[in-house]
Specification:
Helices cover 0% and strands 48% of the residues. Strands 1, 16, 17, 18, 20 and 21 form a six-stranded antiparallel β-sheet that branches. Strands 11, 12, 13, 14, 15 and 19 form a six-stranded antiparallel β-sheet that branches. It has a five-stranded mixed β-sheet with strand order 3-10-9-5-6, with no helix packed on it.
Length: 301
């Protein structure tokens, strides 16, 4: 495969960017929900999330951040049964050093189209916030959020596989689509490289799927994706989570993502949400697939 990278020495590859759910002791995240130290919310009600970070050693609030794909913060909200995914972007107040956004409220912001329906069902959610404090590097904070009420866990059903490709047919914005997802794993002595290729098709007026056209960059990337393993929270490796970005494709409707897995992801059922901007709208495409770990090379000692 021409996109294969031989060396597995780098956790961020030369053609995609990846955020890991790692824990660091140099930065401490702080969260408030509706101005309180609580993790309980009422589903469907306006809910204000406030986030800030402090230097763990000095206790001072960090106030200088670099943009990461067009935003100072990317926030992801995923329900624990993987039935719901939201990607939002809190606003930054530089005097206080705090980020803030209100969920379940419409915003006149094309990059925050998920805020209007972010917490509408009862259940447990994981909320993750990615930032890049200047002089420190990419960091993440996360908390559990419990939306009050009776929660019925949804079973994760894998999407059909044809010729080693997971196939997802869906309708968004009144148009019919199909996405094909394929992945490759290459084992190394220091983890293994996982590469994804997604290809988007749109159904034409004759009912035939053709490669999608009018694909545009979104927030500085060809496409965005979040990949989680079933049972994503806890375990010796922390959260089983990766936030990946694809380069802008020069042509065609395929996007490439990769991830250097150092034991972060679990084998078994997975879900990935791929976001692609097409015809001025951002598509959010969930694909459920089975992840198999490759065997380590016999040369590893």
């Amino acid at each position: 495969m021409k996109y294969m990278i031989v060396s597995l020495l780098f956790s961020v590859s030369i053609f995609t960017q990846t955020a890991l759910a790692q824990m660091y002791d140099d930065v401490t995240p702080h969260f408030r929900i509706n101005s309180k130290e609580t993790k309980m919310v009422m589903p469907g009600q306006p809910t204000t999330i406030e986030v800030w970070f402090t230097d763990t050693h000095s206790g001072e609030v960090i106030k200088e951040y670099k943009e990461l794909h067009g935003k100072l913060m990317h926030m992801v909200l995923i329900k624990t049964d993987l039935s719901s995914f939201k990607h939002i972007h809190p606003y930054y107040e530089p005097v206080s050093g705090r980020f803030m956004i209100t969920l379940n409220m419409p915003l006149n912001d094309p990059d925050n189209f998920h805020t209007n329906s972010s917490l509408t069902e009862p259940g447990m959610y994981m909320l993750m916030a990615d930032v890049w404090p200047r002089g420190i590097g990419m960091r993440m904070g996360h908390i559990h959020v419990h939306a009050h009420g009776q929660h019925n866990m949804q079973r994760l059903e894998l999407d059909p596989v044809v010729n080693n490709k997971s196939i997802k047919e869906f309708t968004q914005y009144g148009r019919d689509y199909k996405l094909e997802l394929e992945y490759w794993s290459t084992a190394g002595c220091n983890g293994h490289l996982v590469e994804f290729m997604s290809t988007l098709y749109e159904k034409n007026s004759q009912g035939v799927y053709e490669p999608a056209t009018d694909i545009d960059p979104w927030l500085g990337a060809g496409a965005h994706s979040v990949w989680v393993s079933q049972g994503m929270m806890g375990g010796p490796a922390g959260m089983h989570y990766a936030h990946m970005h694809s380069k802008i494709p020069e042509e065609g409707s395929s996007h490439f993502f990769n991830f250097h897995d150092l034991g972060i992801m679990k084998a078994g059922p997975q879900k990935i949400w791929i976001q692609i901007k097409q015809k001025s709208k951002v598509l959010t495409i969930p694909v459920a697939f089975d992840y198999k770990l490759p065997s380590s090379p016999s040369t590893c000692k």
